[in-house]
User: Fold Dimethyl sulfoxide reductase from Gilliamella apicola.
Amino acid sequence: MQELPLVFFTVIGQLSAGMILLSGLFYLVSRSPTKLAITRRIYAVSLIFMMIGMGVASLHLGQPLRALNVIFGIGRSPMSNEIFTFCLSFGIAFAFVILNHFVLYPDSTKLKIIKPLCQKINRIPGLNYLLATMLVILSQLFVWSIVQTYMLPTIKTWNTHYTAIQMYTAMLVLGGIAVTWLGLYRIGYCAFFIGSSVILLVKRPYLELMTSIAPELANNQHDLNVIQCRLLIGAMVLLLLTILCRRHPKILYLLVFIGVFVAEICERITFYNLWMITI
Assistant:
C-alpha cells in the first residue's frame, strides 16, 4: 500500500511522543535520585525512534526538498503543525540529552568542543524542568496535530471521535511498554493498561460504526482487527504475570514491545484501509 510510510511514521511518532510524555512526567514529579539518568536514557532512545520515523516519512515525499515549504503552513495547516511539533520535540530532547551528558559524566572527554558551552547553559536554574515541561506539552500537541490532519469532513470513516481515541491510545500503549522496557515500571504499566483497556473496550462500537458507514471496507479489515486484539490481550497477560512475580525480565519486555508495535501497525493499516471520500 502507498500509505505504508505514513503508517510507520505515525506509529513511530506516537511511540516517541508517549516515551517523551511519560518520562517527562516522571522527571517532573519524581524525587528519585536516578530520575535524571532514567529520563535522559529514555529521551535518547526516543531520538533514535524519531530519526527512524523521519527516514521512513521521507519515503512518502515525491520531492523531499519541497518539505521546507512546511514552515509556511505553521499555525493554519495541521500537517505543518504535525511536522513542526515533531521537529521541535526532536531538537529539545536532543538538547536535554547532550546538556545532561556533562551533568552525569562531568569528567567525560567526549564532545570536548561543546563542553564549556554546555556547562554554562546548565547553570541556568530549573533548565531541565523547563525542557521537560516543554516536551510534555509538545508531545500532546504533536499527537493532536495528527488527529487534526486526519479528521476530514469528506472522509466519514476518519471524521469521528474514534480517530482521536486511536491516536492517543497508541501513544499510551506504545510509550507505556517502551518506558517499561527501559526501566520506568509504574508509570509504564499504568499507561499501557489504560491504553490497552480503552482500545479493547471501544473496538466493538468502533467497528459497528465503520460497518454502518462502509460495510465492505470494514469487513475486509476483520483479520487485522483480530490480530491487534489478540496481541494486546497477550501483552496484558504477560505483563500481569511479571507484576505478580515481581520480576522485570528485559527480554520479555522487549518481546511484548515488539508484539504491541505489530498490533498498532495492524490498527493503523486498518485505519488507512478505511479511507473513502463521500460527497
Notes: Residues 151 and 267 are 17 Å apart (CA to CA). The domain at 1-150 is CATH 1.20.1630.10 (Formate dehydrogenase/DMSO reductase fold).
